[in-house]
Design goal:
There is one protein chain. With 307 residues, the protein is of the alpha/beta class. The protein has seven helices and twelve strands. The longest helix has 14 residues. It is elongated. The chain starts with 47 loop residues before the first strand and ends in an 18-residue tail after the last helix.
């Protein structure tokens, strides 16, 4: 005999898995002995889970947009280099995954439907791990990377392929350097005793670092007037930076152009081959809207070259 249908407007009890964002998150492996593991929700009622590898302005804006989108939940992953990051919408995890293998395991365990690499344009290692993990789990991957800067009339730009090359070429410039390549790249300049470095960072740099070092603790965006004053008051001879792109720190380039200062710029690495790249949040949202849940990789698969 067929079971009676519930009255209109009512639904049978929910037998789906616990909400991973709720307190006391559990997995089927952790269910009490003798209790049947609940069946997963049908695709039509399960929230689409997007993992954003973040730490950038674009990642924050994307998380805000996804968090407001019905039927979607977002998790932002931060590397943990900043001890007090600003608040983010949705769920947030901090720390590394343990290489591409660990990231692949996380994608499977948390049923991630789409992975967005919105890390810094120079986070090449993490981007490589994301491409490997996505390929081995069948998870759609999208890179969200703001465009690089473009040289303007009056600029005195020269390019280097790495921070190490930039450090080797400093002998061609005056002794006072505004260095804005990030805390993680200071080691490349640690052996340079012929120059005085002015470094701007969110937190105090850790060694190894140049011996002649002055640190300004500050967070962008920076105004053009403030950048003009910085170059003038510190008598900067050369600006060394990375092609990070965006507007939050671009005023220093305008200020350098106005003063006729040389700018030594480190080229950004190319994104992983074969991965679609978007350059703004709206493009990313449009691409994500067309993504459907992929076929999962077999349990136990491991990305090649994992660490």
């Amino acid at each position: 005999m067929r079971a009676p249908r519930p009255p209109a407007g009512q639904h049978p009890p929910d037998t789906g898995p616990p909400d991973p964002n709720a307190a006391g998150e559990g997995t089927p492996d952790g269910a009490p002995a003798g209790r049947r593991t609940p069946a997963p929700h049908p695709r039509s009622t399960r929230l689409v889970h997007v993992l954003v590898l973040g730490g950038t302005t674009e990642a924050r804006a994307l998380a805000l947009a996804l968090d407001a989108r019905p039927g979607t939940r977002v998790t932002t992953s931060l590397a943990g280099r900043v001890t007090a990051p600003a608040a983010l919408p949705g769920a947030v995890r901090v720390g590394g995954f343990g290489g591409p293998e660990g990231l692949a395991d996380w994608l499977r365990a948390h049923e991630v439907d789409a992975l967005v690499d919105a890390t810094h344009p120079f986070a090449a290692t993490m981007s490589g791990h994301a491409a490997s993990a996505a390929a081995h789990t069948g998870t759609p991957l999208l890179v969200l990377c703001r465009p690089g800067w473009r040289e303007q009339p009056g600029d005195r730009w020269e390019w280097a392929d790495s921070t190490e090359e930039a450090a080797r070429r400093l002998s061609a410039y005056g002794p006072r350097v505004l260095l804005t390549t990030g805390r993680g790249s200071l080691a490349a300049f640690a052996a340079t005793d012929t120059h005085h470095f002015l470094v701007r960072a969110v937190e105090e740099p850790r060694p190894p670092a140049p011996r002649h070092l002055e640190t300004l603790l500050d967070r962008g965006p920076y105004t053009l007037e403030a950048e003009r004053a910085l170059l003038r008051e510190h008598r900067v001879d050369v600006l060394v930076t990375k092609d990070s792109g965006g507007t939050a720190t671009s005023a220093k380039l305008t200020a350098a152009r106005e003063r006729g200062l040389p700018v030594l710029i480190v080229r950004r690495p190319a994104p992983p081959a074969g991965v679609p790249v978007t350059h703004d949040v709206q493009q990313a949202l449009e691409r994500l809207a067309s993504i459907t849940r992929p076929t999962r990789g077999t349990a136990g698969e491991r990305p090649a070259g994992s660490t």
